[in-house]
Design a protein that fits this description.
Radius of gyration of chain A: 18 Å
Number of helices of chain A: 2
Oligomer: homohexamer
Distance between the termini of chain A: 19 Å
Mean pLDDT of chain A: 97
Strand content of chain A: over 45%
Helix content of chain A: under 10%
Order of helices and strands of chain A: EEEEEEEEEEEEEEEEEEEHEEEH
Largest sheet of chain A: 5 strands, mixed
Structural class of chain A: mainly beta
Chain lengths: 326, 326, 326, 326, 326, 326
């Protein structure tokens, strides 16, 4: 087994469940899934694609909570243990600087601690989908800044630190609809306002992701590179199937793919993944990692309706990833 | 709580189940759903989108019963209590006046008592879908008359009385397929043969109904207006979701929308709504109402496979509708 | 040669040009086509699909004049001889009774004298295309009445008299776009307000019209039936081609097709028909007929840009039609 | 009940379960379905559309086993009783004669004993889908030969003997994608290399199969003709539903349909058919038949994820088929 | 200049026009194009995609003559000089052996002398497009035989002799419509009835042919290989453009491409190519070749409306082809 | 007439032709159009969408020259008078800094003098269309720098000077194909490398541009604002029509539209605009302006095949624009 280590903080209270006996794959589901059910409040239709982070010894997060009008909105939430979540009943109200347009809708958030605060990126409605950017210190007040990119874009995910003096942002250029294409790019910035030096990371390659792919949680820094979970979409003879897999990216030039796991890691198999508002979806949005133990816990949206949890060990995952890389 | 009252008859034996403890929403499912299972007879594939009415102290109805050839046909059915239904094994045979064409297919019936008989409207196959019209006195013999409208149309629903001396008919102009558009109109007639003075009622507005909408059961007259349940369709990134909501229309000019409930009332959540011939469908087709108690019981098709039942109180629903109207 | 005669008025000053020597087909183009060029005024982009009639010993008409914003609007126009036209620079301003909605756009007009006035039908923008209806006595003031039919419909064409006590209207049910289907129906009315007793006339049959068809000019009454020119659309491997042909309908039940000419009569061949805003269009909208001589002169839109003229003799056309009927 | 008999061998150990009490339809599911679950090995995503045959007193087969990369590959498998299957963990490795191209992918296999060996046909990736052809004597070594047909084709199924001196092959000409069309043809060959004398068998007819149809298992010879199970696809307002039915074909000219069962026999109803990688699929690929008892046992793919089993008696099925034939 | 020579007969009366002064490209148009105008008879809409051959010291051919019903039919025609053509007014009537189905439509013929007769291949309507096959000795009586291939196929073109003891046939597998794909294959046969040993020749490669390609005239045998003209289709931002180019194929294994000309040879530039029933089409269907002089004269359809002629010299063309091959 | 003046240089030798007598519109075509024909060299298929500028007392430019492979490539060209152009036979060879990817294709260039050099922007092939950026001093050597924006984007147009200390760039976010949407945005940069502070300028509004719009030539600074010509696309019932119009943008915040001309200025009317590789296209790419006289001369691509020229006077155009603004 490899000696890879997570570069980061201890998180001794990371939500965790040991691997079931007999399981040979490196990632396994939480036995109490869905960890967050669909309607924590009567006017909330579903909670999924959730961005949980460690916060002040506990956990906090930003959640996609489609309401019963089926508006796509964001709520903050808090948890003592990362398993039992209190979702705020009211949506996040953004402080908006002058000239920053009011979001038409917000979905699929990611939260990333950089420097001194939590940055939030999400798919932001502004003449179509683009990458909204904001920040919070406490998950109580939230401030939005300039949209990072032009429309049409989705799955904007920040790196947790500057690389070579520049902030990095994954994104997936898109169009106005759900057209069947999507590759992952990295854009660079010196100030989180102006973005350039765009680099191509990767596109669909394996059948399970052959329609489109997008970055998942904030990448995890390891001694061997940036570990990125990404979702991929297969178009069957009758619809989409969203699974997720993993890649290891170069530490200094993370647009270089060191290893890419050819099989998916998680695909829709459980009833809460197979049925719901969008059948057959497993969509990862946030990972917690404990540098001491190498534990990684990942929240993923299931069927665009509820939130599931999966667990892995960084060294076990890395071995699997290398072994099954092309 | 408002003083709204249903304008109509007593229906003391309305099928009913009290609201579960802890439920805060104004409408709730029957605990024994699906109230009608998919195959009452071996050659019937499914029973859904069902038009039940009170009849001679008991209940009768016209049911969409796709057969195992997957032809869309109508059957009559009877029930002592509105819960336990005997569906006739044979389809309805229409008496056809000269020149009235034989239906190619019949689906999504509604039944409406006007004047002295039960009128049936349905989506009728005649060079494409249009609004078939017929009547019965006893649910034993049925007579078809002229198609009310030109193709292509669906979801034709009569009002239970003339308004300003004219019969009124909701419809949803469509095309030859299942193209993603659909608004509700009202057409007027002095004789149920010639229709004109078409009025626009409403189109998609909320996200949950953003693809298309259509009238549901025969509207219920109340002291505050016509209460209409309507279905709405959302196009997710991977298919349709049919939910239903409610509006209150002006009594004299029912093309004027007084209140429109922004959230949906019922959306697909139960396994019998999430899976079946068409996953993710809740499609209301008939309501029973008791003027004495304000109880309203609504039959809806679930997953185009079985029939479900939901209950509400008119005043509770009206308060919710007003509170959540735009 | 047959003894068919036009039932109607003399029109001794009908615009006319004799058949060119050597021509064997029963219909021929005006040698000075296009009879109306594209821009009679600088802000008019094109004049086509034009509805000319005899009026007070001269000629008048309603013209589709897309302006240089490419709005679809109607203009009145006048001519001494039916060849040299003065198009009004300003659009028709409709007098609108209460409740009749302001047209969003108007195109493809037909004009039909019935009883005591000129009725105008056109494709009217009201939540999508439907059949607008209005009238004029003098081509100076115009009054709009209720839309005849629900959306979505196009090519509404009135009969020049009641048949069996009812007004008759051709139409072509459509949808919100230019989807590739279209059949001709007749609707009936006792008062031009309420319409019913819808009858199916015909759908695509020959390859040249295999995508969709629609009624052309107001039908011409003859001793053998109603003569209708209709356009038909062929979808080639790379776009549409609009040609036109003719049918003879039963006098009493004009939804019965007596003869249907299998070949087209006119198809796009001249440069002004092959090129323009919509290449490959010949679209007839108005015919003049002289009962004395059997002459029929038809105005047609060419390439959705200009107006052309073709001539025929009723008996020659009828013989050709019968000979080439299926 | 008819005196029809299966023409073929005894198979006394055919997997079997008696008809449940009260069942009136001629075909019934195995109570322990799915008979093969989705992941016999960790890297296998699903096992379905399976081609089982009797082999040396036991059972063997070729299985579509999509792996966790979602590649479509074939595995051999063995069973003592036809119910409990051991699927080989490694894919079939084809011996490839010179010039025969390496398959890009392989799916939906059928296995057919002819003369002295087991022939395998499958949907073979070669510039698009076409009909791959190979053989084995022992399910250990497999040899591929020339592709039988040009792309684009699917559902190639051999007859178990020559008819009139020629090998026969069902196929379903297709295109590069999953476009909504598909009819069944028979092609003939004297040497299994060159194919010609193509005959049309049948296309969609009933609503349950109105989008496309394809041959299922190797046809079963009976005293009354060739019994063919075939799948058919219905396009609902929101996706495909795959059911299956049966036809009886002429013994000498099997492109002549003697009887065609108008209702489907099996459609998606159980949770393992309604949910999975492709919801709502029942797709038959292999039948076992016992000439002594008339028992027929059919393996079918469920939801493109697992394998189910259904049972019937040839005479009962034949009576049903004749009774419900058009 | 290369020493390539045509392998074949002298054709001293080949229609010919010397290269215009100043022309640097190796192929040039006939100055009197279109050589065949659109309507040689009043009921013929267009003559294009024409298969002319040398015949008894003069010229004969099979022509696609869409009639004024826009049916796609074939006519025979004759010419003294290959320039002035007499097209028969009546269509070819096929003698049909038992079991050979009546063609639903016939288009895009090619004529190929093999052994002792002229074989005709064409796109034949039989449940969709496939490759019809027939023969004539004299262009007066024509006999059809079995369709060569299963639907859906187009552009079937025979080789003028057996290669390695087998007849060879180019084809372009297609689907039921004009979907945007198409590669060239070769199928082999020992008897012109059963076809197999299918080989892939080539697919789209250059931008001018990036949507689909198909074989053009019967290939011309040269000392350096088989010279094949092929058409290719580019999809612009607003429609298709059909141009044509050339390849040199291996003499013994003609599925091996020796040289492939990267630029097109002829594209739509003249008004008769730019406008007509299908704008922007140059589609070659027949070449005449004179072994003595190396002259090659090619007939091509222009705008699916008329027929054009282009000229080249085999050595000049071959040099250009080699120079511009990838 | 207004006192608007062009802010910029004198260009006394601007190519010019006076307004024809009788013309009432403010813009008119060059009588010798097309000013650049389609094939200046045999291997060039077409020259259009051309970016001409004043250079050293004469004229130079960058031209889209699709070659006869139909590759989209750029050529430099020179002219003494702006009318008679010498296009280089060879394509522009870009000097490529490390990491800047080789363009897959280049089309629709614009050239803009800023500070000390000519910047070139174009639609650059890099995993789809994006905005390529490069520069030249002399039209002999060209250097490419980082792509300005992420894919998918088209119609990138620089402003001729910094505004408020930032470079400005129009663009039209797009997708991988020619999907029917497109709005104009402005992005800002301090260094031409990193771009942000994206602002929305405008989307389709008038019918003539109702499908999509894009910026045309480099905007012209005037005393009243930035004058921008833009193209707009109308989707007719059978294809696209590209016309162009003009807007006046705020000098300081050019995302604010001061005036927007509701009619188009130029639409396809001449044969060289109506026919060619893409019928019905007028696409402006470059303007020359003379501050002394107010003359503006604009080059536009016609039918994606040749280049046309139109003339206007700034004050006349501005009056027209204001008069016809919404």
């Amino acid at each position: 087994m490899s000696s890879i280590r997570i570069v980061g903080h201890s998180l001794p209270n990371i939500p965790w469940q040991d691997k079931p006996a007999g399981e040979v794959l490196p990632i396994w589901r939480y036995s109490q899934n869905p960890v967050i059910p669909r309607s924590p409040h009567p006017h909330i239709n579903s909670v999924f694609n959730s961005a949980a982070v460690a916060h002040e010894g506990k956990f906090a997060g930003v959640f996609r909570c489609d309401n019963t009008r089926r508006q796509m909105v964001l709520h903050a939430g808090f948890s003592e243990d990362g398993l039992d979540w209190k979702i705020n009943p009211e949506t996040i109200q953004w402080n908006l600087p002058e000239d920053v347009p009011v979001p038409e809708y917000c979905y699929d958030p990611r939260v990333c601690w950089i420097d001194d605060r939590y940055y939030v990126t999400w798919c932001n409605g502004w003449h179509g989908p683009t990458i909204g950017l904001g920040y919070t210190y406490d998950f109580k007040t939230f401030t939005m800044v300039e949209n990072a990119l032009l429309p049409y874009n989705r799955n904007g995910v920040l790196f947790p630190r500057k690389v070579n003096g520049r902030y990095l942002l994954f994104s997936r250029p898109s169009d106005t609809g759900h057209t069947a294409f999507g590759d992952i790019y990295i854009s660079q910035s010196e100030d989180l306002v102006y973005w350039g030096r765009h680099r191509y990371v990767m596109g669909p390659k394996e059948p399970w992701e052959s329609t489109k792919i997008g970055a998942g949680p904030v990448p995890i820094e390891t001694t061997e590179g940036w570990l990125l979970f990404h979702h991929g979409v297969l178009t069957s003879c009758n619809g989409y199937v969203y699974s997720f897999g993993a890649v290891m990216l170069d530490l200094e030039k993370p647009w270089i793919v060191r290893y890419r796991c050819r099989p998916y890691l998680i695909n829709p198999r459980e009833l809460y993944e197979l049925t719901g508002d969008v059948p057959n979806v497993c969509f990862p949005c946030a990972s917690l990692a404990d540098a001491d133990t190498g534990r990684i816990t990942t929240y993923y949206g299931a069927a665009d309706t509820v939130t599931g949890l999966v667990f892995t060990q960084v060294n076990e995952l890395y071995d699997y990833l290398r072994k099954h890389s092309a």
